[in-house]
């Protein structure tokens, strides 16, 4: 009998949240899941953690369907793009902006500033390369993550830009008999 697992992920891309996602997906795989549906709404978060989520999800070796159920913003695009089937609800959207972050220092000199810039350029380049590969370069992400522009894109545009894999929008569906998981800040 086929077993589908549905993971509802609602929250930022943080180490505790992605750690819980990894735990859930590994347990689903150990328990014989034939596919995972990731229903996701996230305003983004830590870029290094987003890359870890992407590569973890790609490594599972079982079909992954991602469904935007609210907003998929910023680095939350990485776990969303990990899926081979990517869908979006009618009134959902995607948000893109330049790579940014915070530094826990009070004083910064020119050397530190250059290091921070190299750090952000490195992440922006990796993000752009991954985005291009998963969307077949239908959308110039560099205008946003490298040049620092911001764009909020309605779900209806997702297919023509290669972000979603099916034309139009659809409500998320939980298959009959699916095993259900919930990842929110209150569940970690």
Protein model, in words:
This protein has helices at 15-30, 47-59, 77-81, 110-135, 142-145; strands at residues 4-10, 35-42, 64-73, 85-88, 93-96, 151-154, 179-183. The protein is of the alpha/beta class. The protein has a domain at 4-97 and 151-187: 2-enoyl-CoA Hydratase, Chain A, domain 1, CATH 3.90.226.10. Strands 1, 2, 3, 4, 5, 6 and 7 form a seven-stranded mixed β-sheet that branches. Strand 1 (4-10), helix 1 (15-30) and strand 2 (35-42) form a beta-alpha-beta unit. The two termini are 30 Å apart. The model has no long low-confidence stretch (mean pLDDT 91).
Compact description:
This protein is α/β, with parallel strands linked by helices.
Poorly predicted segments: none
Order of helices and strands: EHEHEHEEHHEE
Q: In total, how many beta strands?
A: 7
Could you tell me the radius of gyration in angstroms?
Answer: 17 Å
CATH class of the domain at 4-97 and 151-187: Alpha Beta
Estimated helix fraction = 25-40%
Shape: globular
Q: Kindly estimate the percentage of residues that lie in beta strands according to DSSP.
A: 15-25%
Overall pLDDT score: 91
Q: Which structural class do you get from the secondary structure elements?
A: alpha/beta
CATH topology of the domain at 4-97 and 151-187: 2-enoyl-CoA Hydratase, Chain A, domain 1
Biggest sheet overview: 7 strands, mixed
- CATH architectural group of the domain at 4-97 and 151-187: Alpha-Beta Complex
SS summary, helix count: 5
Distance between the termini: 30 Å
Within CATH, the superfamily of the domain at 4-97 and 151-187 carries the name 2-enoyl-CoA Hydratase, Chain A, domain 1
């Amino acid at each position: 009998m086929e077993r589908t697992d549905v993971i509802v992920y609602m929250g930022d891309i943080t180490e505790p949240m992605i750690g819980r996602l990894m735990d859930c997906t590994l347990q689903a795989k150990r328990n014989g899941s034939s596919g995972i549906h990731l229903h996701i709404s996230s305003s983004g978060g830590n870029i290094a953690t987003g890359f870890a989520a992407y590569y973890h999800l790609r490594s599972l070796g079982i079909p992954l369907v991602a469904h935007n159920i609210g907003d998929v913003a910023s680095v939350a695009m990485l776990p969303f793009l990990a899926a081979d089937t990517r869908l979006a609800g009618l009134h959902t959207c995607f948000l893109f902006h330049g790579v940014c972050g915070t530094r826990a220092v009070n004083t910064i000199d020119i050397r530190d500033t250059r290091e921070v810039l190299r750090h952000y350029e490195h992440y922006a380049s990796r993000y752009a390369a991954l985005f291009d590969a998963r969307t077949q370069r239908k959308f110039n992400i560099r205008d946003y993550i490298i040049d620092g522009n911001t764009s909020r894109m309605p779900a209806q545009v997702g297919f023509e830009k290669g972000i979603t894999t099916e034309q139009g929008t659809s409500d998320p569906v939980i298959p009959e008999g699916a095993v259900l998981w919930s990842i929110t800040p209150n569940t970690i």
